């Protein structure tokens, strides 16, 4: 009970720190696409009476959307920041208290400094993006794999299965890792086989000469695999069936332009005001390998410390295998931080596992361990900073600007448009827009005006003749979105004839009703 109270108290303090830094970041004008998307959907969910099913079930990643709902009762605009800050804060508190309970007080202090100053952890905690869920679920996945090597109970496999089930609602492609853990499951069953006290090779040799034992080993491996597979696979199949039942498309959640924050690839370049990079000239492999190296200090050290533990090393070996698979699946694109976080999470889980083994006595008695821990802290902070400095991801570049206290990339266009709508357009005015392109603006102004977008029942009717039922039209300038198939091409008639009342580098606002009125 005392430990729970300690975790709660420390978690509250660290969460308050993260949320405070996050509000300071927003005060400086920094915004990110994903939290704005979530804010827009949460506002629609609380105020819109139509398409509630689509908003609740098909907004993807669903786990991010659902976990933000409680904080949305406070304020939908703050919900992503509050949620990420609290979750990462309590995760940090759990790790700190876990180390302190192992009588590693100095190490727990160094880890506290890491969680408070790490560029990667700060990015996860204060940006309001879904990165914190990747960190937590990666950690849980490896933590229970390691835990099984200490405690051979089916409980650990059930928890791994539940972890993969949550990944279905976060990033269903992670289920492919099941293929890579099949050899690990076989080794688990082999090592846990009773009656033999030999090496792996000795056990395997003796089992293969005994047909009954070999069949028992195979059955044990298959049953374990079934326990892990059943819940996530069934959940994913049911999720696909629900999509097909209501939309006629199994992959509606991934294909529709309004269900995911990154469904419009060009929007990132528009929002962060960066020129679109030609992927044909981008060396994705070299970039990804460099990023992996910059984030791998804890992972490599835990791998070296546990060098005499075969199962431990084999589990850690899943990380480079998974990253190679991800890089090979799309070699022209770089690995985003949500994929690279598996390195950090596996490294943390590896250290927590080693502290549960007899190696804990070495950590307690050897003073050199504290010097190595301090050197590792410095190396992590420096290498993570260089990761952001090296990264070409607009989200990471914007976070680097915050760390350097520079001007954010997306302040001018979005904030000026929001300011114009709030100051110059009458409250309650109807604005026709393509939500998949302009949700960064609508998320910040939905309480001031009424948007006729894909979540309005009259959207496609108004598209035919916007001058009748809409007061204004909000569009993205074609110079930033040459392939725009939204309002530009759907509106019946020449939209260029509508008077332009406001324009900045990215957005334009047109007056669509009563063209003889004085334009505000």
TrEMBL record:
TM segment ranges: 7-27, 77-100, 107-124, 130-146, 153-170, 176-193, 225-246, 287-305, 310-328, 340-356, 368-388
Specify whether Transmembrane is a keyword of the entry.
yes
Kindly state which keywords UniProt assigns to this record, in alphabetical order. Membrane, Transmembrane, Transmembrane helix
Key word Transmembrane helix present: yes
**Name of protein:** Glycosyltransferase RgtA/B/C/D-like domain-containing protein
Species source reads: Leeuwenhoekiella parthenopeia
């Amino acid at each position: 009970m005392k430990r729970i109270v300690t975790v709660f108290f420390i978690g509250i303090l660290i969460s308050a720190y993260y949320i405070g830094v996050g509000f300071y970041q927003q005060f400086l004008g920094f915004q990110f696409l994903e939290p704005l998307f979530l804010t827009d959907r949460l506002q629609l969910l609380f105020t819109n009476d139509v398409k509630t099913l689509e908003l609740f079930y098909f907004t993807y990643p669903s786990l991010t959307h659902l976990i933000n709902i409680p904080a949305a009762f406070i304020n939908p605009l703050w919900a992503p920041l509050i949620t990420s800050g609290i979750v990462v804060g309590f995760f940090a508190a759990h790790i700190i208290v876990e180390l302190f309970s192992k009588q590693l007080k100095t190490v727990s202090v160094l880890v506290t400094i890491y969680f408070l100053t790490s560029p990667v952890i700060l990015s996860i905690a204060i940006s309001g993006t879904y990165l914190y869920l990747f960190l937590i679920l990666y950690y849980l996945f490896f933590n229970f794999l390691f835990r099984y090597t200490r405690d051979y109970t089916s409980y650990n496999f059930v928890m791994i299965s539940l972890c993969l089930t949550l990944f279905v609602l976060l990033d269903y492609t992670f289920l492919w890792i099941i293929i890579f853990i099949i050899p690990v499951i076989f080794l688990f069953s082999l090592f846990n086989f009773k009656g033999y006290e030999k090496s792996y090779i000795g056990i395997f040799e003796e089992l293969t000469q005994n047909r009954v034992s070999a069949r028992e080993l195979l059955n044990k491996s298959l049953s374990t695999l079934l326990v892990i597979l059943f819940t996530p696979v069934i959940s994913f199949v049911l999720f696909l069936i629900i999509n097909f039942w209501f939309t006629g498309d199994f992959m509606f959640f991934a294909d529709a332009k309004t269900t995911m924050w990154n469904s419009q690839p060009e929007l990132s370049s528009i929002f962060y005001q960066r020129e679109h990079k030609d992927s044909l000239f981008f060396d994705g492999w070299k970039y990804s390998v460099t990023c992996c190296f910059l984030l791998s200090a804890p992972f490599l050290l835990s791998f070296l410390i546990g060098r005499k533990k075969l199962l431990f090393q084999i589990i850690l070996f899943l990380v480079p295998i998974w990253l190679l698979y991800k890089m090979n699946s799309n070699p022209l694109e770089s690995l985003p931080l949500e994929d690279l976080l598996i390195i950090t999470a596996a490294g943390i889980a590896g250290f927590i596992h080693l502290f549960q083994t007899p190696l804990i006595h070495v950590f307690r008695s050897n003073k050199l361990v504290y010097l190595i821990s301090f050197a590792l802290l410095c190396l992590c902070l420096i290498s993570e900073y260089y990761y952001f400095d090296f990264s070409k991801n607009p989200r990471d570049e914007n976070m680097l600007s915050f760390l350097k206290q520079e001007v954010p990339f997306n302040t001018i266009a979005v904030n000026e448009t929001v300011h114009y709508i709030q100051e110059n357009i009458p409250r309650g005015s109807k604005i026709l827009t393509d939500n998949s392109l302009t949700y960064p603006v609508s998320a910040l102004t939905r309480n001031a005006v009424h948007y006729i977008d894909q979540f309005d029942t009259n959207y496609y009717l108004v598209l035919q003749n916007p001058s009748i039922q809409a007061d204004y039209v909000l569009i993205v300038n074609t110079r930033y979105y040459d392939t725009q198939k939204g309002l530009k091409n759907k509106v019946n008639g020449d939209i260029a004839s509508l008077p332009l009342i406001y324009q900045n580098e990215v957005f334009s606002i047109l007056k669509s009703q009563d063209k003889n009125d004085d334009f505000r």
